[in-house]
Each structure stands twice: as structure tokens, then as C-alpha cells.
């Protein structure tokens, strides 16, 4: 979904032609719907491919209604964004038309005056997809493809969403005035939803019945802080908090079990933690965080997988998986993300080694590395270890 741009928005040397729709007699929606369907639209100018569009592509559209005679410079925020629902060919003129459904900016959505449109906790790059609002546009008004990510609050395996992307997490029906896909509920004590790349750090409680994210700033402000525990007590609480029976069962099932350790050793059974390498333990014994250096998606997938593997060795007598690093650091490729090339095995391997991987690792297949995890440092305040406490269950997060 890499954006290809025909013009540089806001660049005074190029300018933007606006109000292009007025150059054409745009057919009505019913008229356009009755036209012949085509799957692709490729536009070449002087032999160069300037537009390459297909159904379901997200696109940036130059707004109409701006004075066409002036050079106009508009920001990316001001451009219109839509999703191509159909590409149509006019029989007589061979003209091509696009039927698009619109992404609304927060202010456009609030302007609907619908019951839910008063929500005011949108991120500056957040959009609401209004799948029922269709319009016909001419391809000449398209500026290029738009990188718009669908953000799923609960999906810890989501591709990282770059800061330059617009994102969407709600689909609205403007006729029935209701959500077809609701924006996720706000989970923090402040009752505000997560603004990607704007909110600073958020901590997650992965325990049964919690599964909630909290802003570090809100925890700080409302004093959800524990200063009574030692470093090892805090680390053990992190290591042992996950919900294998419910929410994280699929994640746990995706990691194969190792054989049970041979328990017929003479004398005292060795400490199970002696089988766990420090770098794995360090991953399991840190908080689950998103935002800032942790990226918009955060470290949940890596940390929870490390906790599953540590749990099996420490408390269920299993051997350590030889390829534990792969299970922690690699994931199936889902969609194309700019900057990640799944076929570049060397790059994947380097990313893994930088993230603490080792010599047993073999890269390849259809896997890509998870987002790297910044080094975690304990917080010391007035000489004491401090950690955040979950407002839901009171335990360390
Ligand atoms: Zn908050
Ligand atoms: Zn909790």
C-alpha cells in the first residue's frame, strides 16, 4: 500500500490543480452504477504510468471548491480520502469514472450531527470510513494512493503503522446513523481512546478480566504506582501475568510444546530458571507497552510469547525450545509494509540478531521480524523500585 504521488502537496514549485471535477460533466451515481465495470485503471502520460488504480485502493483526492486560477497549496490533512468501490467505463466516450466511498476527517464526522458523532477523542490522523456515502469522481481528481491503515485495538500482531499514515478504526453508516464497525472502547481511566503516535506510552494489563491499556501519564497522575515491591517481585509479576486460558490461548497454541525435561537426575532437581537464557527472561520480565519507541502496536506479541515459553520451562517441566527466538521474534507476513521485504533473508536475520537473536536462527519462508523492543530500564524513585499498578486489578503492569 505504498503511496505513489503524482504531485507533491504543498510544494510551491508544483502547485496543485484544484476543482478539477468542474471540468467534466460528472454522471450521477445511478447513471455511473449502470456503466460497464472495469477492474483496473492505468493512466499513462508521455509514456509514463501516472496512475495505477484498482478496486479497494485507498486514494487521495484533490478537494473541489478551491479557486482553480490560483496556485493552491494544501496540506495532506485537507485532502479528501476515499476507497475505490468500482471503476466504470462510459460506453460512448470511453471515459473512466471512479465510484468512491469516503473517509471522513474527525471534523467532517462531527459535522454529521448524528448521535455518536460527538465523540471528540480522535487522533489527528484518524479517519472514519463512511462506507455508505458513495460519489462519482473523475480519475483526474485523484492525486495518488493513500496509505490508510485499519487499526484493530485488540490485534497485537498488526503490522506496525508508520507515523506518516492515516488510520481508521470505525466504519459508519450515514443513512442509518450507526456504526457498522464501532471504534474500540476507551480503556484508560481518562476515558479517551488511544491516539496513535500522539499519546506517549501506554501500559497493558494482560490478566484475565483486565486486558486494558492505560496511559502512563494517567497512571502517574492518579498515583497508580507501586513502591513496596522489590525488583525481583515486580519482575515475577510481569513474567507470570498472561491469560493462556482465554485471550492468549491462540498465541500460546501457535508455539509448539517442547519435550518434558528428564527428571531422573540424582540429588536435588536443578533450578528450572537455570535452563532459561537471560535474554529470554529479560523479555518476559518487562511491562507490555505501546507508543513512543515501542511503536503504535507495541511489544505485546514479543513479551507475551516470551512469557509463554518461560512459563512452560519454569512451571511445567518442559525443555527450552531450540528455536525459541524464532517463535518470539518472527511472525507470518500479512500485508505489505513499506520498509519490510520478506524475501530479504539477510535483513530479517540482522533485525533478529539486533533484537537479541542468536546463532541457531534460520531465516526464510514467509516470515518477517516483529517490531524491535527498546531496552527496558527499571524505574527508581527516591531509592525505591517503582512500577505502575493496574487500576482494574491492582497488580503490577
Ligand atoms: Zn488515559
Ligand atoms: Zn489488571
Count of beta strands: 19
- How far the N terminus sits from the C terminus, by CA atoms, comes to 35 Å
Instruction: Give the % helix.
Output: 10-25%
What class do helices, strands and sheet pairing give? Answer: alpha+beta
Textual characterization of the structure:
Residues 51-183 form the BAH domain. This is BAH domain-containing protein. One of its GO terms (molecular function) is chromatin binding. InterPro entries: BAH_dom, BAH_sf, Znf_FYVE_PHD. The chain has 397 residues and is α+β, with helices and mostly antiparallel strands. It folds into two domains: 20-181, SH3 type barrels (Roll), CATH 2.30.30.490; 202-388, no CATH class. The protein has nine helices and 19 strands. It has helices at 29-33, 106-110, 216-221, 231-240, 249-253, 278-284, 300-315, 324-329, 345-354; strands at residues 36-38, 40-45, 48-54, 58-61, 80-89, 96-104, 126-138, 142-145, 148-150, 166-173, 178-181, 202-205, 212-215, 225-226, 288-290, 330-332, 367-369, 379-381, 384-388. The strands form five sheets. Strands 1, 4, 5, 6, 7, 8, 9, 10 and 11 form a nine-stranded mixed β-sheet that branches. The protein has a three-stranded antiparallel β-sheet with strand order 13-12-15. α6 (278-284) crosses α7. The longest helix is centred in the C-terminal third of the chain and has 16 residues, at 300-315. Residues 1-22, 337-349 and 355-363 have low confidence and may be disordered. Bound molecules: zinc ion (2 copies). One zinc ion (ZN) binds next to loops.
Amino acid at each position: 500500500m505504498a503511496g505513489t504521488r503524482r504531485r507533491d502537496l504543498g510544494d510551491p514549485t508544483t502547485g496543485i490543480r484544484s476543482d478539477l471535477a468542474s471540468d467534466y460533466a460528472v454522471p450521477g451515481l445511478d447513471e455511473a452504477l449502470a456503466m460497464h465495470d472495469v477492474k483496473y485503471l492505468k493512466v499513462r502520460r508521455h509514456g509514463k504510468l501516472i496512475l495505477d488504480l484498482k478496486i479497494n485502493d485507498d486514494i487521495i483526492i484533490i478537494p473541489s471548491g478551491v479557486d482553480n486560477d490560483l496556485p493552491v497549496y494544501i496540506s495532506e490533512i485537507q485532502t479528501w480520502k476515499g476507497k475505490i468501490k468500482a471503476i466504470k467505463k462510459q460506453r460512448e466516450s470511453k471515459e473512466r469514472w471512479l465510484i468512491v466511498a469516503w473517509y471522513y476527517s474527525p471534523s467532517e464526522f462531527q459535522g454529521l450531527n448524528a448521535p455518536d458523532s460527538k465523540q471528540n477523542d480522535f487522533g489527528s490522523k484518524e479517519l472514519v470510513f463512511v462506507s455508505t456515502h458513495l460519489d462519482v469522481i473523475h480519475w483526474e481528481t485523484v492525486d495518488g494512493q493513500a496509505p490508510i491503515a485499519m487499526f484493530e485495538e485488540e490485534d497485537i500482531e498488526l503490522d506496525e503503522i508508520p507515523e506518516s499514515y492515516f488510520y481508521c478504526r470505525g466504519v459508519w453508516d450515514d443513512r442509518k446513523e450507526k456504526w457498522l464497525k464501532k471504534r474500540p472502547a476507551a480503556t484508560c481511566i481518562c476515558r479517551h481512546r488511544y491516539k496513535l503516535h500522539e499519546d506517549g506510552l501506554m501500559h497493558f494489563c494482560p490478566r484475565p478480566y483486565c486486558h486494558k491499556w492505560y496511559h502512563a501519564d494517567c497512571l502517574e497522575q492518579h498515583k497508580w504506582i507501586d513502591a513496596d515491591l522489590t525488583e525481583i517481585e515486580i519482575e515475577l509479576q510481569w513474567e507470570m501475568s498472561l491469560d493462556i486460558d482465554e485471550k492468549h490461548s491462540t498465541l500460546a497454541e501457535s508455539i509448539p510444546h517442547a519435550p518434558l525435561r528428564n527428571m531422573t537426575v540424582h540429588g536435588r532437581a536443578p533450578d528450572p530458571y537455570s535452563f532459561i537464557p537471560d535474554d529470554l527472561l529479560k523479555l518476559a520480565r518487562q511491562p507490555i507497552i505501546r507508543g513512543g519507541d515501542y511503536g503504535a502496536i507495541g511489544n505485546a506479541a514479543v513479551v507475551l510469547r516470551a512469557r509463554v515459553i518461560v512459563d512452560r520451562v519454569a512451571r511445567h517441566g518442559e525443555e527450552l525450545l531450540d528455536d525459541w527466538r524464532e517463535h518470539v521474534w518472527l511472525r507470518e507476513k500479512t500485508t505489505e509494509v513499506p520498509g519490510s521485504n520478506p524475501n530479504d533473508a539477510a535483513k530479517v536475520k540482522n533485525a533478529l540478531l539486533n533484537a537479541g537473536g542468536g546463532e541457531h536462527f534460520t531465516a526464510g519462508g514467509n516470515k518477517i521480524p516483529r517490531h524491535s523492543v527498546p531496552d527496558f530500564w527499571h524505574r527508581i524513585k527516591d531509592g525505591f523500585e517503582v512500577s505502575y499498578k493496574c487500576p482494574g486489578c491492582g497488580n503490577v503492569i
